[in-house]
Design brief:
alpha/beta; six-stranded mixed beta sheet; 20 helices; globular; binds pyridoxal-5'-phosphate
Length: about 425
């Protein structure tokens, strides 16, 4: 399989190049040259397959020509070694809980998959690149998954940028207490500043000649393709409960940078017999306005209680557009989108908990809200629950008027010491920092 840029450059690169450079360098993002179709008969048996079995089939269809099958098997077994349960909320509403990994966030799936892939490719390379630095900007949630997946490795470093004073104490502890090969850099600026710095660094050829750099999060094609697995798994778990429901299945998808949604579209293109998708956004609604008008016009970023979705100009929009061949009509045949206010989010958390006993985090609440808006009679909705509610403890406690318990992995963090540096939002300062041996 070769990979090309969404910006339309003529180059087609290998998996190794796509993963070790992270971005094509022309302002676009990598996509595989084609989307492999899974054999339709697979869907007759998928209800009996485990998460690891499904992950192997999906990963093998993309990487089978580039990586030995035992190695793919080992990558998926190391990545998908936690539960992803499908939980019934109401008769036609289910939640696919993606937050049972080590940092209690769905980004654990993509981050661990990407890290394991990268590590295997570096092992078998004859090129000079045998150690690489992953650069990531985080609004708080994704940084923890990246740090956790890379901490303690000898082949990969991570430098994680986050906006000073704009992430929770708990989130900061999840990123900035590893030390060693994980460098936490707090930027005196916004999340947008952090994203823009990472983009500039990744496109800085002079810097890249001195330090091999790559991307993380759904910018990185391995992270994105790892996420595709979770959709097949969600479909399989619903099919195991009720085949008729699976035939009328709609995924509701929490959307910020649209990586999640892009992975869903890839899964459908591979043959997953899902009906359609409902995208969910908070007040940062560039994608919702695109769906309703056909015009893409990002506005300024707005801070909300679902801060991992505070994205004004989602970078995966270019991948989605290409997957639909630039056709707005084809895109809206598969995808609808709803948006909500902070008031809607808080009311949803409270009302859902009171009426069903199901507790969801603010991003899950955005998703449930959209699912209820968008679902038609006879359809069954599966929302993706992207984060454990305890990660947003102060918001949840305030809404419910009671203290929720912290899971053990989070409770132990408070005693750990922060190891971070603080830098201004300037490329020169950040470059200088990276070049210190
Ligand atoms: C990253 C993230 C999202 C948004 O996912 P995208 O792939 O960027 O659209 C939603 N919720 C949580 C908790 C996240 O960490």
């Amino acid at each position: 399989m070769l990979y090309h840029s969404t910006s339309g450059g003529p180059q087609h690169v290998s998996l190794f190049t796509a993963l070790t450079t992270g971005v094509p360098g022309d302002g676009g993002l990598y996509l595989p040259d084609y989307i492999p179709a899974l054999p339709p008969a697979l869907f007759n048996n998928i209800a009996g397959m485990t998460l690891q079995d499904i992950a192997y089939v999906v990963a093998n269809s993309f990487f089978g020509n580039d990586i030995d099958s035992e190695v793919i098997n080992s990558i998926v077994n190391r990545t998908f070694d936690f539960e992803i349960p499908l939980v019934r909320i109401e008769p036609d509403h289910y939640s696919l809980e993606l937050f049972h990994g080590p940092t209690l966030a769905f980004k654990d799936v993509g981050a661990r998959f990407m890290t394991n892939m990268l590590s295997e490719l570096l092992k078998n390379t004859s090129s000079d690149t045998s150690r690489i630095t992953v650069l990531a900007a985080t609004a708080g949630d994704s940084g923890a998954s990246i740090a956790n997946s890379i901490a303690g490795r000898s082949d990969i470093n991570a430098v994680i940028f986050y906006p000073k004073g704009k992430i929770s104490r708990l989130q900061e502890k999840q990123i900035a207490t590893y030390g060693g090969n994980i460098q936490a850099v707090e930027i005196r600026g916004s999340f947008d500043d952090c994203q823009s710095l990472v983009k500039q660094l990744l496109n800085d050829n002079e810097l890249r000649e001195q330090i091999p750099l790559t991307s993380a999060n759904s910018i990185n094609i391995a992270h994105l393709l790892g996420q595709v697995v979770t959709y097949f798994h969600g479909y399989a778990r619903l099919a195991a409960i009720d085949e008729r429901k699976a035939a009328e299945m709609v995924f509701a998808i929490p959307s910020g940078n649209l990586g999640n949604l892009t992975a869903a579209v890839i899964a459908k293109r591979m043959g997953m017999p899902v009906k359609r998708f409902i995208a969910a956004t908070n007040a940062n609604d560039a994608f919702m306005r695109y769906i309703s008008t056909g015009k893409y016009s990002p506005r300024r970023q707005i801070s909300t209680v679902a801060n991992a979705m505070d994205v004004s100009d989602p970078y995966n929009f270019v991948r989605l557009s290409e997957l639909y061949g630039g056709s707005f009509e084809h895109l809206i045949a598969d995808i609808s989108c709803f948006t909500c206010t902070d008031g809607d989010i808080l009311a949803t958390i409270r009302d859902l908990y009171r009426s069903t006993g199901y507790l969801t985090d603010p991003h899950g609440a955005v998703t449930y809200f959209s699912m209820k808006r968008g679902l038609k009679p006879h359809e069954t909705g599966v929302m993706l629950a992207p984060a454990h509610p305890a990660k947003f403890k102060s918001t949840i406690d305030a809404v419910l008027g009671q203290e929720i318990e912290l899971p053990r992995t989070l409770a132990g963090l408070s005693v750990k010491r922060l190891q971070k540096v603080t830098l201004p939002p300037q490329l020169s300062a950040v470059k200088e920092f990276l070049l210190i041996p």
